[in-house]
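Q: Hi! First time doing this. I have a protein sequence and I read that you can turn it into a structure. Is that right? Here it is:
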Amino acid sequence: MKSLFLDQKIKYDGTQLRSLFAYLGHGVLGNSIVSFIGPCDVSFDHMVDGEDLLAQSKICGQEMLHFIIEIFDEKLSTGVSLQRLFASIVQAYIHERTNFKFQLTRDGDDLFWNNKKLSISIATTSPRSVMVHFAVNIVNEGTPVPTCALNDFGLDPIAAAKDLMASFAKEFIGIQEATWKVKPVS
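A: Yes, that's right. Below is the predicted 3D structure, encoded as structure tokens:
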């Protein structure tokens, strides 16, 4: 599992959720998690969540910390499982870094504090991989719903990005190793 924090600001518009984003755009080949900071504004043309499309829900924010995960040769159910694992990693990270001052709740792949939404996320597939976009608000401006943000918790987004990617990579490698050591039964 490779990881990379991109120093340049990138506006997430949904087109980044594509196979080989990390490799063709940033030289990261293979299973990966890439992170960057930037605004978010997903048009309906690039929205992959059917629920949001049916509701015509806006997905936007002035400044967010984005993660793109790509895992090869897996099914969508694996992508959704990794999406929820990542949400749990983010939740635990915020709890630990704030000494549990802010009690976040997780509902599926969404994180909340005081009924305010912290994250957005989607998992999807390509012919070769599963991909996850997961993002947390850095600030609360520009969002269509009541939100909370890393600024509310006093967390540095760059440090959080690097710590969260390292935690995810460790979990993913642990999952792989757990599958390699198991003797099959007949």
